[in-house]
Design goal:
The protein is about 25% helix and about 25% strand. It contains five helices and nine strands, in the order βαβαβββαββββαα. The strands form two sheets. Strands 4-3-2-5-6-7 form a six-stranded mixed sheet, sandwiched between helices. Strand 5, helix 3 and strand 6 form a beta-alpha-beta unit. It starts with a strand and ends in a 9-residue tail after the last helix. Bound molecules: inosinic acid (IMP) and magnesium ion. Inosinic acid (IMP) binds next to strand 5, helix 3 and strand 8.
Length: about 190
């Protein structure tokens, strides 16, 4: 099965713009955006630029991949700044099982921010294990595996300027399976 474009650059820009409006409307004293590495890197960079009415501070947190069977996870990169008393929005690329968001929410809540909410570009509720409270939500997905705009397999596809739907089993067997289709002349019309 070839990959298909789900969100082209214009569609992404429209969602980012809307989410930026929602966040600045709710944070009149400014906001700390905490991007979850590395998947949310592209999204949070665009989201920060979409917020034009209030100051944005950017920070990042990175954790090891959640192993759903063990539940064990560790922080690989921590925030630079103290967020106590601050208005914080945690920014994710995609919320799937909800385990990552739940873990990070607990970690940040323990640092006593004034407010804490979550923003995700993509939401796939069909695979949820723990509930997710998503104050800001881009697009709801069916049970489809996505790549691009930060999302990856083995660190491939993150720099695509669109989100594509692929076959999870195809890239598990061959991570580069969609490279020829999604990069280069074939993909130029999507940019
Ligand atoms: P959760 O803890 O299951 O909600 O996992 C979310 C993390 O898994 C995301 O932040 C992504 O980094 C990764 N992930 C989940 N679904 C996909 C996908 O369809 N494509 C690529 N990465 C994904
Ligand atoms: Mg992520």
């Amino acid at each position: 099965m070839p990959a298909e474009i789900l969100l082209d650059p214009d569609a992404l820009a429209a969602h980012v713009h809307r989410l930026g409006r929602e966040i600045e409307r709710d944070h009149r004293d400014g906001v700390v955006l905490v991007g979850v590495l590395k998947g949310a890197l592209l999204f949070v960079a665009d989201l920060a630029r979409a917020i034009t009415e209030v100051p944005v501070e950017l920070d990042f947190i990175g954790i090891s991949r959640f192993a759903p069977d063990s539940g064990r996870v560790k922080i690989l990169h921590d925030l630079d700044r103290d967020v106590s008393g601050r208005d914080v929005v945690l920014v994710e690329d995609i919320v799937d099982t909800g385990l990552t968001l739940a873990y990070l929410t607990a970690q940040l809540q323990a640092r006593a921010p004034r407010t804490l909410s979550a923003c995700t570009l993509l939401d796939r509720p069909s695979r949820r294990i723990v509930p997710a409270d998503l104050r800001y939500r881009g697009v709801e997905l069916a049970d489809e595996f996505v790549l691009g705009y930060g999302l990856h397999t083995r660190d491939l596809y993150r720099n695509l300027p669109f989100v594509a739907v692929g076959d999870r089993e195809v890239v598990t067997a061959e991570p580069g399976a969609y490279v020829a289709q999604l990069y280069g002349a074939n993909a130029r019309e999507n940019r």
